[in-house]
Design brief:
The protein is an alpha/beta fold. The chain contains 7 helices and 6 strands; from the N terminus they run ββαααβαβαβαβα. Strand 4, helix 5 and strand 5 form a beta-alpha-beta unit. Helix 2 crosses helix 3 and helix 4 crosses helix 5. The two termini are 16 Å apart.
């Protein structure tokens, strides 16, 4: 299949041949949902914790005698049945939220996202993408000149000038091919992909 190759003004200059396996797949919504959910879950940390019966700070003295008061038996104010008592099954900080996704499924899901971006004309291919100096204003102007707003820039390798220029732009993110993830691909309105990055994608996702 052919993808549009745009210039610095955002206009179509030519076309570039692209792999059908990477950019011509049907959109599999269930698979994309699965890999996005798994990616977010695998980045989740077990930072929450609740107190069990032995963790709450209460006296362990019996609140009243066993018999003769007319009230129900009670042995400990830390009981989960009491207000302020410990939880029966507390959440622990070392809880594991990770989900397993097979490599073949992950690659197919990534190809599905890229194909949908290409179909919706949200994927822009450029010959190369760089800035001369690490200046936020320069990168913002370049993105604006191309007629884009919320943009993910994917390069074949890390460019320090691009990386430093994008850090203070909320709607712009720069990633190299090795660190592209499904969440980043779907959260931006446009994706700029260099020709070298596209060739590297075809190697990684084949």
């Amino acid at each position: 299949m052919e993808l549009k190759l745009i210039n610095d003004q955002g206009k179509s200059a030519a076309t570039v041949a692209a792999s059908d396996a990477l950019f011509g797949r049907e959109y599999n919504e269930a698979l994309v949902h699965q890999i996005v959910t798994a990616y977010r879950a695998n980045g989740r940390l077990g930072t929450r914790a609740q107190k069990g019966r032995s963790d709450v700070r209460h006296s362990h003295k019996k609140p009243w005698r066993q018999k003769g008061t007319g009230r129900a038996r009670a042995g400990d104010v830390a009981s989960p049945l009491w207000r302020g008592g410990g939880k029966i099954f507390p959440n622990l900080p070392d809880e594991n939220f990770s989900q397993k996704v097979n490599r073949k499924m992950y690659r197919a899901g990534m190809c599905s996202i890229l194909s949908q971006l290409a179909r919706e004309d949200r994927l822009k291919v450029v010959e190369s993408f760089s800035v001369d100096a690490p200046k936020t204003k320069v990168l913002a102007g370049k993105i604006r000149q191309m007629g884009l707003d919320s943009t993910l820039v994917i390069t074949d390798s890390v460019d320090q000038n691009l990386l430093l220029s994008s850090r203070n732009l909320v709607k712009v993110r720069v990633l190299d091919v090795d660190h592209v993830d499904p969440v980043s691909l779907i959260q931006f309105d446009n994706v700029i992909l260099t020709k070298k990055a596209m060739a590297k994608f075809e190697e990684l996702l084949k």
